[in-house]
Amino acid sequence: MIRLDVTPESAGWGYSGLRIVELAAGGGEYSCSTGGDEVVVVPLSGSVAVTADGEKVQLDGRDSVFDGPTDVAYVPIGAGLTLRSDTGGRFALATARATRRLPVRHIPVARQRIEMRGAGNCSRQVNNFATTDVLDADRIIACEVLTPGGNWSSYPPHRHDDLEEIYYFEVAGGGPGYQRASGVREVRSGDVVLIPDGWHGPSMAAPGYDLYYLNVMAGTGERAWVIEDEPEHAWVRDTWADQEVDPRLPFGKGLHR
């Protein structure tokens, strides 16, 4: 079952997309053609077998987004794609319109860059699985960010006007989170915020409610994550050198700062 479907057409832009698929336990399946989109399959909960271009990639997945990083799969344009899950679960298909065709790939956690970014109440964990330093792709850039309750991430506010960005949120315990873009809005599990351009951030985790978001980015220029901090707040970065990383990080067994 498709729970969410953001396409470039529905978003009113040119490249970035996101689909959330829910599969039943006992062999639930979902099939589609990737068409003109390259795809990164990200298990949000559960494990899944990804079949494309005659290749099968088994993703171990995780129980929830707060239980640590997950392995992911890259699927190119022009492929038939099938997901099949024995455990059941929810799976994100992060997409970008592309022209260069690359092979199917499995990106295990060991090949990802798990980063503790910021310090103090700006501490957050970034799981880089489809960033430019981890995955060779045509246009897509994707990562996930986990913010302990009471902390801010996507801060200082910044912009990257050549990249269209999707934020997909989940909040532990059913609580609220908050996102500043053009104004501040409350977000809950399953919500998305679209950032076509302009200043955005922070993403705010309410005290007691850890915040997760999946970022999907793509655009017209070179595949690079180049940001500009909002000048009024850029000084905040300089304060991190004198602070410790939040001891609640990292999320996930076996991970160390």
From TrEMBL:
One of its GO terms (biological process) is inositol catabolic process. It comes from the Bacteria. One of its GO terms (molecular function) is glucuronate isomerase activity. Pfam families: KduI (PF04962). Keywords: Isomerase. The keyword Secreted does not apply. This is 5-deoxyglucuronate isomerase.
